[in-house]
Design goal:
single chain, mainly alpha, elongated
């Protein structure tokens, strides 16, 4: 009598794949890098704008310090204060600076979070801040150079004060040109790259898919 083998056949052995599957593309890092730099620039802008709004109190404090312990006469103090822009310019300009810095801050937070709207806000900020920076520098330089020519005969202390003013004007101009012209121009050029546009379009598609 033959044995009836009713056992099912062994299942076929699956061979391991000979080719690797598609790898998940690595996420670009530029949104985080540019976003963090922009947040720092915006923080400096907010700080400078707040100092400008408080400048009437700060200038009165500087005037009292110079008259009490600075060894400067009232004429020297008045001449140095005359080289500062008037409050009718400083206060509105500071408020504009705060508004523009807030725009950059919101845009860079969105950029770091990979939001297409953040890129749009950064572009708007760039187109506003470049001419505004140049206008501000021209106005500041105009009033700084209003110190009369005979001021050099008012003593060494006054000459040193004016020299420090010119030094801070030059340092501030370099910083302003870097953050208010160089950085926004870099942003506009960077956002115009085809690969960057593809990234931003992908963010927008992801946002629409989540709605």
């Amino acid at each position: 009598m033959e044995n009836d083998d009713t056992r099912p056949p062994d299942p076929p052995v699956m061979a391991p794949p000979s080719e690797m599957g598609d790898l998940v593309p690595e996420r670009s890092k530029w949104p985080t890098v540019i976003g963090v730099i922009g947040i720092l620039v915006a923080s400096f802008g907010l700080f400078g704008g707040c100092c400008g709004v408080l400048s009437p109190f700060l200038m009165n404090f500087s005037r009292s310090m110079a008259s009490s312990g600075g060894g400067m006469s009232q004429e020297q103090i008045d001449t140095m204060m005359a080289s500062q822009p008037p409050m009718l310019w400083i206060i509105p300009a500071s408020l504009v600076g705060i508004a523009v810095a807030t725009l950059l801050l919101i845009g860079c937070i969105g950029l770091a979070r990979r939001r297409a709207g953040g890129v749009t806000l950064c572009k708007v900020w760039a187109w506003i801040i470049i001419p505004w920076t140049l206008i501000s520098l021209v106005v500041a330089a105009y009033f700084q150079f209003q110190v009369p020519a005979d001021a050099q005969q008012m003593g060494v202390g006054f000459q040193m004060g004016v020299g420090f003013q010119y030094f801070f004007l030059a340092a501030g101009a370099c910083f302003a040109l870097t953050t208010g012209v160089g950085f926004p121009m870099f942003m506009l050029i960077w956002f115009a790259r085809p690969s960057v546009k593809d990234d931003v379009d992908a963010w927008a598609a992801e946002s629409r898919a989540m709605i």
